[in-house]
Amino acid sequence: MKEFFNMGGYALYVWGSFGMTALLMLAEPLLVRSRRKATLRRVSILVRGKQAQRSASTSTNTSGDFK
Amino acid sequence: MSSNKFNWFKFSSPATFYPLAGKMVPWFSGIAVILIFIGLYMGFFVAPTDYKQGEGYRIIFVHVPASWMSMFIYLVMAFWAILGLVFNTRVSGMMVQALAPTGAMFTFLALWTGAFWGKPMWGTWWVWDARLTSELILFFLYIGYIALHSSIDDNRRADRASAILVLVGVVNIPIIYYSVKWWNTLHQGASVSVKSGSSMASTMLLAMLIMALGFWAYSIAVSLARVRSVILERERDTYWVSELAEIKR
Fold first, then answer.
1. Which chain A residue has its CA at the smallest distance from B58's CA?
2. What ipTM was predicted for this assembly?
3. Contact of B110 with B135, CB cutoff 8 Å
């Protein structure tokens, strides 16, 4: 076991390479997931806001011109 | 007659591409996890110790797949960039946008693992060698694409301007690939080539190829997952987005 982690004296280089690769390839999907959550939140707020605005403007539209 | 043909343009519409991408993400994620797991097992426990480089050579199992992906993703970006310029399809620009961060990450990893391999074998983290320098330029091209695209507010104009940058940068890919032939470099020649086959032990080669396929599936999964966010952001004013279950909820 100890021998395995020692990598024949190349431990720093082998684990430095695999470690950075693992770090980035685990971090990227997490970043993509958090971006998706943020996007869903933002877009649904925008869509809801627009719908609310539309229904408000049609209900208070008493000027007679239909938009 | 033409109605019998499969209409590829159907998927150039964000409204049809978005659910398709969503269906493909879990499949490619699963394939990526399985292949990378098998590749790591083979790379560490099945592949023999190298007679020259000892255990240090095992860096190859991340270095080569990451380097291949760094170049391959750029070519895929160029492919989408051409489609976008020629057919003016909206999904093309979105795909280029979604691929760039993953490509930049793999380029960084190719440079990083290369440095961690160069230090014990060549005695230096970095040299201004043709292979290393052209790969660094590839990293700058990715960064340049991302910076250029985000500096233009109008997405469609950003797509077009940055597509040209991507296409001009394609000239760098054969330079990277052939750099070890064209110049005397410290970097070793190709371990696997179409003409002369492989110069590696078969289990080493197999482990490396499995890792490469795993990275490939990973890239597809991540970029398709990312393009879904890009699509939502850029199509937020459309009716189909406002009717999505995940938006209405």
1. A14
2. 0.88
3. yes
Residue B196 phi/psi, 5° resolution?
Answer: -100, 5
Residues with Cβ within 8 Å of residue A31, at least 6 apart in sequence: none
pLDDT tops 60 at residue A63: no
Strand residue runs (E) in chain B: 192-193, 197-198
Q: SS3 for B75-115, per residue? A: HHHHHHHHHHHHHCCHHHHHHHHHHHHHHHHHHHHHHHHHH
Tokens representing A60 are 């208070």
d(CA B93, CA B202): 40
- Predicted model pTM: 0.90
Give the minimum alpha-carbon distance from A49 to chain B in angstroms, rounded to a whole number.
11
In single-letter form, the type of residue at position A10 comes to Y
Residue B62, C-beta contacts closer than 8 angstroms, at least 6 positions apart? A17, A18, A21, B109, B113, B211
B68/chain A closest Cα distance in angstroms: 14
Contact assignment for B225 to A9 by CB distance below 8 Å:
no
Q: Please list the residues that pair with B197 across neighbouring strands.
A: B193
Contact B201, B47 (CB under 8 A): yes
Selected residue with higher pLDDT from B104 and B192: B104
